[in-house]
UniProtKB/TrEMBL annotation, chains A, B:
Protein family per UniProt: In the C-terminal section; belongs to the HTP reductase family. In the N-terminal section; belongs to the cytidine and deoxycytidylate deaminase family.
Protein name (database record): Riboflavin biosynthesis protein RibD
Natural source organism: Sphingobium scionense
Pfam family, one: dCMP_cyt_deam_1
Organism ancestry: Bacteria, Pseudomonadati, Pseudomonadota, Alphaproteobacteria, Sphingomonadales
Assigned keywords, A-Z: Hydrolase, Metal-binding, Multifunctional enzyme, NADP, Oxidoreductase, Riboflavin biosynthesis, Zinc
Binding positions (Zn(2+)): H54, C79, C89
Length: 327, 327
């Protein structure tokens, strides 16, 4: 007899684990896995740096023989394709004697795409698929968009005043938001594979775009420039927002400004998520956060964004919006 | 034996009643009054249109002889000055046999200024002063600022996109916010004595600035223009934000735009409250809500505003900020 509420709790925990690998696991999806026996968590895993070990392998490694007869919660269907880099997780689970596997999302990768579940079922394992699939897809959105649209998931991050300014007219923007908001923004950087700025921002601010948080210094993402000119050392350049599809090992991309780069991505309808750090200040005339996005009718602006999160960060407020329309 | 928690509950109710008279009671303060006997509310009052009857007179009129031995909660010290327009409330209360009067705010008007409380005490009435004084002062802020600074309380209202735009570049702003936010904004209009716009907004939008809510049509405030040119019929003009001090019977003023009028009031440090209706849309290049406020150093922008309220209004969000610095 299964307990749906408990299943949801455990899957939510697996999804939270999967978030730990976001921006780190590429080119593999940031999967999370929890193994539970008799109401006790006996194994936890998330896809590690560069994609190996997989979440399931890591969780099984922690569980050892306690995996026998246990239930595994995994945010993505266990892989079934052969790889020189590691074992097939569906087979690992069957061999470990896992009795039941609860999967959030079926793997859209055609090399697995249901075969992992089939393999498990054929070996007598109970398999359930689809629990909290939307939440899992959101946590692995870079992988999902790469599979479905052939491009990374893109977040636009802005630090704004109440009246939507990102800097004074002379460009000064230190500081609009406070230390709590800045620390959160650095944590978000660590969860992206790459960060992009426009040429104007590079020239004006020479941003280092690194993660300045204790213990996460090595999580600084790659630095990208939206520019037709050659990139300086330590940077890569793309000429056009659509070129993000060609980026290797970038599933989660954060656009950090300026207004023209933000507008270019919005015009191309390539922003999936808005990460707005809002300070309780007024600036008045100054630099706007977003340039011309080609809007000619206000009606077209509506219905595109829904708020998914909101929290205080010291004196500031974080507002997260997700796109409502598919690209 | 008094019950502090009950006292606070009743005073909060009296403050809520006082809000009903905001924008209506001028030139008198929008006072609220609740009379309670043996745990039952026996009288309620708030200052009526044009200032009479006073809240206490109205509440006593409802209570009749149940006021005998009761406790009265009143947001402002009962008046003691002689007026041809009505009785002195301190005397009315003593004559009605009220046993105890709990007052939030001492009346700063020098014609009363403690004399109402003294009169009551001399007649054997228990008087307590200061309960929830800050909250009461906030509800009667127009009166308080008129007494202390010689000018009305000023609210700046803006309907904004996430990126701080109030209209497209061509000026079109119908609609940024939805019907729930617009209804709320109309209710706020009804609670102000006058609404001001700049000359550009008058020319571009010819706003009627009336209250279009069923039952509140007669609560439409006076229309003011910030302009050195003569005002059209049905409007009055002031040349400068400081001129609000000269306005007769305006204790609560709302500035509705545009960007230059908003900036002029902010430059003069004459905005006490921000009423921001935020729509979940991006506009990009377009009209900013606030023009040049003379900010030259970001540090000077901080610490001026604290959020006092936040709520959803359909798809939009209302954010209310109060000034933290005294003018």
């Amino acid at each position: 007899m299964n307990d749906i509420a408990a299943d949801r709790r455990y899957m939510a925990a697996a999804i939270a684990l999967s978030e730990r690998g976001r921006g780190l696991s590429t080119p593999n999806p940031n999967v999370g896995c929890l193994i539970v026996r008799d109401g006790h968590v006996v194994g936890r895993g998330w896809t590690q740096k560069g994609g190996r070990p997989h979440a399931e392998a890591q969780a099984l490694d922690e569980a050892l023989d306690r995996a026998e007869g246990a239930t595994a919660y995994v945010t993505l269907e266990p892989c079934f394709h052969l790889s020189p880099r590691g074992p097939r997780c569906a087979d690992l689970m069957a061999r470990a004697g896992v009795a039941r596997v609860v999967i959030a999302l079926r793997d859209p990768d055609p090399r697995t795409d249901g075969q992992g579940a089939t393999w498990l079922r054929e070996r007598g394992v109970t398999v359930e698929m689809g629990l909290m699939a939307a939440e899992a897809a959101e946590a692995m959105r870079g992988f999902v968009l790469r599979q479905t649209l052939g491009r990374p998931a893109v977040t636009l991050k802005l630090g704004l005043s109440l009246d939507g300014r990102i800097a004074l007219a002379d460009g000064s923007s230190r500081w609009i938001t406070g230390p709590d908001a800045r620390a959160h923004a650095h944590l978000e950087r660590a969860r992206h594979d790459a960060i992009l700025v426009g040429g104007g921002t590079l020239r004006a601010d020479a941003p280092s775009l690194d993660v300045r948080l204790p213990g996460l210094e090595d999580r600084s993402p790659r630095r990208l420039l939206l520019s037709r000119s050659p990139a300086p050392e330590g940077w890569s350049a793309i000429a056009d927002p659509e070129d993000i599809a060609t980026l290797d090992r970038v599933d989660h991309l954060m656009v950090e400004g300026g207004a023209e780069a933000a507008a270019a991505f919005l015009r191309a309808d390539l922003i999936d998520r808005l990460l707005l750090y809002r300070a309780p200040i007024l600036i008045g005339s100054g630099m706007a956060g977003i340039g011309d996005i080609g809007l000619v009718d206000l009606a077209d602006a509506h219905g595109r964004w829904r708020q998914t999160e909101e929290r205080r960060l010291g004196p500031d407020r974080l507002e997260v919006y997700a796109r409502t329309r598919s690209a």
